[in-house]
Amino acid sequence: MKRLIFATGNADKLREIKEILADLDLEIISMKEAGVDIDIIEDGKTFEENAIIKAKTIMEVCHEIVLADDSGLEIDYLNKEPGIYSARYMGEDTSYRIKNANLIHRLEGVPDEQRTARFVCAIAAAFPDGTVKTTTGTIEGRIGYEEMGENGFGYDPIFYVPEYGCSTAQLSEEEKNAISHRGKALSKMKEELRESVAGR
User: What tens digit of pLDDT does each residue of 1-10 get?
Assistant: First the structure.
């Protein structure tokens, strides 16, 4: 079975990816499990550029298929902040409870129709032959007035999805994977990976 290294140290993210790609004939492992411990400077200007930087950097170290994602939250009223800085917003070691509270505070008094936001995810796959493939996915919603739900992570508790009448942290894992930005981007990437598992 071929291995695929996923460029993350985030256990929640790795679990999501393993579930979405479960039907592929690939052993999916984390960077840590692959013995890769390097600092990657994500200096891209877009989610896609950062995902490519991560995937290519690690592929050049381990010469295996590497999948990397860059994702974040764009809030229209805040000029699409925190955007590509979502993970580093207010500092990388700041808890998401504090980050979420800060964003809610910055939107104080802003009506529903102006609280529009989206999660964006770009996935890059770097192959040992030098090929790089990318896919993107988004989910539209708005910023809630308080944290709701325990199922998600990061900004999930403040991201309200009107069609479901709840936050993404209140969805089951199955529901979330079906509609999430990462789920959509990974579903598109699945086809690219299927080809590579069969032919590369």
Answer: 689 999 987 8
